[in-house]
Design a protein that fits this description.
Elements (H helix, E strand, L loop, with lengths): L3 E6 L4 E8 L4 E8 H10 L4 E5 L4 H10 L3 E5 L1 H4 L9 H12 L12 H32 L12 H9 L7 H34 L1 H6 L7 H10 L9 H7 L4 E3 L8 E4 L5 H14 L13 H8 L2 H22 L6 H6 L1
Parallel strand pairs: 1-4, 4-5
Antiparallel strand pairs: 1-2, 2-3, 6-7
């Protein structure tokens, strides 16, 4: 068993390393440049290296594993309580080691190159969608200033284009040119979004895990790819509820004195997967999806007594638990109603 721990406070150019035994005795404190850090770690005997889960941490985790070290990542919010008095790089590195020694500490699983690459494509598409939305809103605002009102949504873009192209619309020449430039930018971003979407669908078709996830109603290629890119190995969660809690789909607790007080959902987990699960749940509760809801089922009873959005969040929580069961048992989705009937 490795008896040495090295906590590293990462930065762009200067790293702070704090070495200590598992019992807590400090062995060294070193400030290292980026160029010297790898060489210094190569000289160390195999030990436990701990980073905060921040930018670059997953890359350095893979580099340290290649040198024979065991690597663990800690979420920054779990390190902060162990910083003594003033905050500086040396105190942060020491706090990382102290936090890692706690027996109940939770760690972040390092991501592979494939996961980070998939996440980059996913985030690239999200960025383009946000930029396109901003352009559409700017176009609507510009037309509103000149007496033309259009509802929110991409579906009305054809009507906007027809108005801009119409000579008798009453728009000044400069305003029409500005609108046409915005329309060209929107068309370019739409083409790039379509390209990214096709790439993500191709990635989803290449993974057995992603294919299995898509057998669940309300889970499409985007959700499956998000689970692949941003989600850790399901084996690290003891139950499906732990996975739902990691996604932030459980109620916030403020309980004391034996009285249980539950509030809104925590939103304390992975935002991309949580958002897509709620969107998928909403699609199952739409006018088309409701046709498949069995009378007297849990979901139909929930819809009868709760608002639609609250029922969607409850359904997203249930979908997260079912995902955990599917991936830990390597099984495709089975409709609970049909399973009970069988």
């Amino acid at each position: 068993m490795k008896d040495m721990m090295i906590g590293v406070d990462l930065a762009k150019n200067v790293f702070q390393a704090h070495g200590a035994l598992l019992t807590g005795e400090v062995q060294f404190r070193k400030k290292l440049t980026r160029q010297h850090f790898t060489a210094f770690m190569a000289q160390q005997a195999p030990c436990l290296v701990i980073f905060e889960a921040c930018g670059g941490a997953h890359y350095w985790a893979r580099e340290m594993e290649a040198l024979g070290h065991e690597v663990k990542l800690i979420a920054p919010q779990y390190v902060r309580p162990f910083v003594k008095r003033q905050k500086n790089d040396a105190a942060d590195a020491e706090a990382i080691v102290i936090a890692a020694r706690q027996p109940e500490m939770r760690f972040v699983e390092p991501k592979s190159v494939e996961q980070q690459s998939c996440a980059a494509v996913f985030r690239g598409r999200e960025r383009l969608v946000h930029q396109r939305t901003a352009d559409v809103n700017a176009l609507r605002a510009l037309l509103y200033e000149h007496g033309h009102v259009f509802p929110v949504g991409m579906r009305y873009l054809d009507r906007i284009t027809a108005l801009v192209d119409e000579e008798t619309s009453g728009l000044p020449a400069l305003i029409r040119e500005e609108c046409q430039d915005l329309l060209a930018q929107i068309a370019e971003k739409t083409a790039r979004v379509t390209e990214r979407t096709a790439k993500l669908k191709a990635l989803a078709s290449q993974s057995d895990r992603a294919r299995r996830l898509q057998t669940m109603p309300g889970v499409g290629p985007m959700t499956a790819v998000a689970v692949e890119a941003f989600g850790p190995d399901m084996a690290q969660f003891k139950t499906g509820r732990d996975y739902a809690a990691w996604l932030g789909l459980v109620p916030r607790q403020h309980s004391s004195g034996g009285k249980e007080r539950l509030g809104r959902m925590t939103k304390a987990g992975q935002a991309d997967i949580r958002r897509l699960l709620i969107i998928g749940a909403m699609s199952r509760l739409g006018w088309l999806g409701r046709r498949t809801i069995a009378e007297g089922s849990w979901l139909s009873r929930m819809l009868a007594r709760k608002p639609k959005m609250l029922a969607a969040i409850a359904l997203a929580n249930k979908m997260a638990r079912q995902m955990w069961a599917m991936l830990t048992k390597n099984e495709d989705y089975r409709d609970p109603a049909l399973a009970v009937a069988a």
